[in-house]
Amino acid sequence: MDISSTGLRVLQQIAESGSFTAAAARLGYTQSAVSRQAVSLERSAGTILFDRRPDGVRLTPAGLTLLRHARTILDCLTAAESDLTGTVPRTELVRLGLFLSAGAVVLPAALTRLTATDPQITVTTTEGTTPTLIRALRAGSIDLAVLTSRPPHRPLDSESPRLHVETVVDTELVLATASTGKFAGRTTVHVDELVDAAWIATPSSSSEPLLGVWPGLPGRPRIVHSARDWLTKLHLVAGGFGVTTVPSRVLPVLPPGVSLVHVEGAPPEIRRVLVARLPGRPTPAITAVTRAITSTV
């Protein structure tokens, strides 16, 4: 096979992004250039690497096989560049992905612990939804991911081999309301009282559930504000502009004017916080970061 490093980077980015358009945007290419690279990769490999669907692009089994080799090749090229330029890293790098509300609760304590126990490790972070971070793990763009799942906690994706997953903690989903609003002074609210509520939610897509609306809510929710940043949502709540759902563990970092109440009349909604990585023997740095995250609870 005659495959360029550019082609392998395109493969990796398509795997992470889930579409040619998104991959092109992240790489700074045109969509047609990415499409040409994809066709060229398939021609060189002599097989179909991409499953082109109406809702995006997924790698075929052959594509996943090539992706595993691509990660190794690209890491070797990076190491070779460092050797040639003399820029040998002084620290061990771990690229960590976190779901959208985990940064404020999990990250500071984990990094503080890591600084004390393993100061030679440098952690870089990126936020994303759980499906996005799973694709990034599979693509090799991140080394470790803090993810969330809901019962019955099925495997995170259907690809093989399975990701290595550790449970960090189970946390209850609760309702964030204004401290001076309709539910002021309450510790619980019945789910029927939320039917006509104004909701502040994160936009959904075909692969990502709507975040911020109570899952067992009867009828169609009335969404008045859409925001992906959880802190924006909470400040809108504080201003009395709507309600949203959050894991109960965000209590220590709530902005002023926000209260948390439990929802009655519906089954408890439990969210599990997980740490995931690719299968196989982890590096000592990845093990240390995992340990720092799991020890924060």
Name the average pLDDT.
87
Give the helix level as a range of percent. 25-40%
Number of helices: 9
Shape: globular
Find the count of extended strands (DSSP E, 2+ residues): 12
Uncertain runs: none
Secondary-structure element string: HHHEEHEHHEHEEEEEHEEEH
Tell me the radius of gyration: 22 Å
Biggest pleated-sheet summary: 8 strands, mixed
How far apart lie the N and C ends? Answer: 48 Å
Report on this model:
With 297 residues, this protein is an alpha/beta fold. It is built from nine helices and twelve strands. It has helices spanning 5-17, 20-27, 31-45, 61-85, 102-105, 107-117, 130-139, 230-238, 284-294, and strands spanning 50-53, 56-59, 92-98, 121-127, 144-149, 164-178, 188-190, 198-201, 222-226, 244-247, 258-264, 270-277. Helix 1 crosses helix 2 (20-27). The longest helix has 25 residues, at 61-85. The protein starts with a helix and ends with a helix.
Write the layout of secondary structure elements.
Elements: H1 5-17, H2 20-27, H3 31-45, E1 50-53, E2 56-59, H4 61-85, E3 92-98, H5 102-105, H6 107-117, E4 121-127, H7 130-139, E5 144-149, E6 164-178, E7 188-190, E8 198-201, E9 222-226, H8 230-238, E10 244-247, E11 258-264, E12 270-277, H9 284-294
Parallel strand pairs: 3-4, 3-5, 7-11, 8-9
Antiparallel strand pairs: 1-2, 5-12, 6-10, 6-11, 6-12
Helix pairs in contact: 1-2, 1-3, 1-4, 1-7, 2-3, 6-9
